[in-house]
Design a protein that fits this description.
The longest helix is centred in the N-terminal third of the chain and has 15 residues. Helix 3 links the parallel strand 3 and strand 4. This protein has two domains: about 120 residues, 3-Layer(aba) Sandwich (Rossmann fold), CATH 3.40.50; about 170 residues, Tumour Suppressor Smad4. A six-stranded antiparallel beta sheet has the order 6-5-16-13-8-9. Strands 12-11-10-7-14-15 form a six-stranded antiparallel beta sheet, with no helix packed on it. It is built from nine helices and 16 strands. The two termini are about 30 Å apart. It is of the alpha+beta class. Helices cover about 30% and strands about 30% of the residues.
Length: about 300
């Protein structure tokens, strides 16, 4: 029997490019010896349920076709099942951070050809416990790329979907420029086994890969399967210095700045005396406090053998 592969695609992701390429993608996968089928998502949470169903139906491979939100939903579905299919990604969103970090091509047909080769590596996940331990409202979430807090991280879910479709990543930059003058620090307590910070901060990023919001050098030492998060915390700074830090971030030189804490940890506890949102893979994910742990090698993902 041929291995079964299920494509879970967001028909509105990015500039709606994937839908027009679907027939060609299916042809590529079928000709490689896979039995391919697809599922078009209909709303928030549908990709997660489709991933769970694919796993229970015995699919060996599940491919997230869309942006970072679609990838997160598919991963969140696969994370809880016992027999976990191998994950594939066909990037069709606005930033595609995990695909960017892993060197997965952004051309849809080329990404499909990569999946057809079925070379896989282990992938870490982040597991998030929102709310106080033992509290009735405590919820569990997962992320594959980043968990973050700070006003600047709200860009990713503040940008209207129509604007993202029309302008792509430029929409995020425009929103960032709009928010910069009004940025203010928030209170954060960040605890890891080896580091504690309690004070004002502009931003805190807990990353599993090098790419964040399209910036490919935000966490220059990050690896998707080393069992560690890369944690970046930006201390209070004025507008001019913040702009310079962003510029340094484009060159990968920001981690040496005295206003930046950069360290590794396999678990993190975040809390605040204020109401602070948590951004999970580019989407609103609840509010602090939260505990975050690495789930090392919890999934496998298809990548380019030449780059890994």
């Amino acid at each position: 029997m041929r291995p079964k592969i299920r494509l879970i695609y967001n028909p509105t992701a990015g500039k709606e490019a994937f839908r027009s390429k679907l027939a060609e993608v299916l042809r590529i996968l079928e000709e490689s010896g896979l039995e391919a089928s697809c599922h078009a998502t209909r709303g928030v949470g549908d990709a997660k349920m489709a991933a769970v169903e694919a796993a229970s139906d015995g699919f060996e491979y599940v491919v997230a076709c869309g942006g970072d939100g679609t990838v997160n939903e598919v991963v969140s579905g696969l994370a809880k099942v016992q027999a976990r299919p191998v994950l594939g990604i066909i990037p069709a969103g606005t930033t595609n951070d995990l695909a960017r970090a892993l060197g997965i091509p952004f051309q849809i047909e080329e990404a499909a050809k990569l999946i057809a080769k079925r070379y896989e590596i282990p992938l870490d996940l982040g597991r998030i416990q929102l709310g106080n331990k033992g509290h009735a409202e405590q919820a569990e979430r997962y992320f594959v790329n980043i968990a973050a807090c700070g006003k600047l991280t709200e860009i990713t879910y503040d940008v209207p979907s129509k604007m993202k479709t029309m302008l792509g990543q430029l929409a995020y930059y425009m929103k960032g420029l709009e928010l910069l003058p009004g940025l203010r620090p928030i209170h954060l307590r960040v605890e890891s086994p080896e580091n504690v910070y309690d004070g004002q901060a502009m931003l805190c990023l807990i990353t599993n890969s090098r790419s964040v919001a399209g910036f490919e050098r935000i966490a220059p030492l990050a690896s998707v399967n080393d069992g560690q998060f890369d944690v970046l915390l930006v201390k209070p700074t004025n507008l001019g210095d913040m702009i310079r830090l962003v510029s340094a971030g484009l060159r990968g030189e920001h981690t040496a700045d005295e206003r930046v804490m950069y360290f590794h940890a396999n678990s993190i506890r975040l809390s605040s005396m204020e109401m602070v949102d948590v951004n999970i893979d580019g989407e609103y994910g609840g509010e602090l406090p939260t505990s975050i742990q690495v789930m090392q090698h919890h999934l496998s993902i298809i990548v380019d053998e030449r780059k890994h």
